[in-house]
Amino acid sequence: MLRRIREQFASTGVLEVDTPALSACAVSDPQIESFEIASSQVDDGPLYLQTSPEFCMKRLLAADYPDIFSICRVFRDGELGKRHQPEFTMIEWYRRGFDLGEIIVDTLDIIRVALGPVAPQSVQHYDYRDLFVEQLGIDPQAASVDTLATHAGADADLRTALGDERDDWLDLILSSQIVPGFATDSLTVIRHYPASQAALARLCPDDQSVADRFEVFIGPVELANGYVELTDAAEQRRRFKQDNDERRRRGRPARPVDDALLAALEHGLPACAGVAMGLERLQMLHDGTEDIRDVLTFAFEDNA
After folding, report:
1. Crossing angle, helix 54-62 and helix 259-268, to 10 degrees?
2. What's the per-residue H, E or C state across the chain?
3. What is the pLDDT of residue 120?
4. pLDDT reported for residue 49
5. Between 277 and which of 57, 224, 233, 259 could a Cys-Cys bridge form, CB atoms 3.0 to 4.6 Å apart?
6. Higher pLDDT, 81 or 205
């Protein structure tokens, strides 16, 4: 599978690059937790294992690298289960000048090449809002938190746990009531997530209420998450601050801002689109298993 993926990238002129696993900075996204090394002999502050090679890859693009990809080990704390491991293999790539439609097509090509003869050929495309309206009769951008909680069937404990976190309610409804109904013999693309869930994506030029972000699923299994990338340094700095404010509000530690990434954006990140995809998820689908441990020689539980 790795050979087929590398050959596909090579045939389309995408250069393989290597990035560090250890950094003095960490992702600020409130939905992702980094493994932290509290003290070391090489740095005064904490160090973090990478959750993605994204920041370093964008620095390479700003330094005038061509289209690039990386296949590397990444680490995420708190993720352990039938579809998650705290250490896994990520395939990440960036295409200069691609718009949302082009990077979606590129992603579907990579998935089909990786899965070979077992790859679904049909694709269903949905806008995020349309999924909620068509399947549940609610507008995710207009519905109140109380309406979302009602649709989620929330009891008092869940209502207390999620509170007024609108995006948490939307995530819960999407994962529990919409995604499980996706066809297992088809690829499903969700595009144009709400602006509040933009992460590192730019806002859609035609509609600032949504982001140029997409995800790809086979059945209920998420395979890929991609963006038309944010290139505005000031907006990126604002989002880092917003993320850390949200982390503090949730009782989680703020993360050190990656000033090298901001400097690269200020220097000039070219218009580009990027995708992150988990190799083990692809292997699970290829092998017809629902447990990620079946495709690992050494699962975390074997070494704990």
Report:
1. 30
2. CHHHHHHHHHHCCCEECCCCCEECCCCCCCCCCCCEECCCCCCCCCEEECCCCHHHHHHHHHCCCCCEEEEEEEECCCCCCCCCCCEEEEEEEEEECCCHHHHHHHHHHHHHHHHHHHCCCCEEEEEHHHHHHHHHCCCCCCCCHHHHHHHCCCCHHHHHHHCCCHHHHHHHHHHHHHHHHCCCCCEEEEECCEHHHCCCECEECCEEEEECEEEEEECCEEEEEEEEECCCHHHHHHHHHHHHHHHHHCCCCCCCCCHHHHHHHHHHCCCEEEEEEEHHHHHHHHHCCCCHHHHCCCCHHHHC
3. 93
4. 96
5. 224
6. 205
Mean pLDDT, the chain, as a whole number? 94
In the block, residue with structure tokens 């990035």: 19
| C-beta separation of 289 from 295 below 8 A | yes
- Residue 282 pLDDT > 90, yes or no? yes
Structure tokens of 244?
């850390």
Structural contact between residues 255 and 50, judged by C-beta atoms closer than 8 angstroms: no
Please give the pLDDT value at position 304. Answer: 63
What gap in Å lies between CA 290 and CA 183, rounded to an integer? 15
pTM metric for this prediction: 0.94
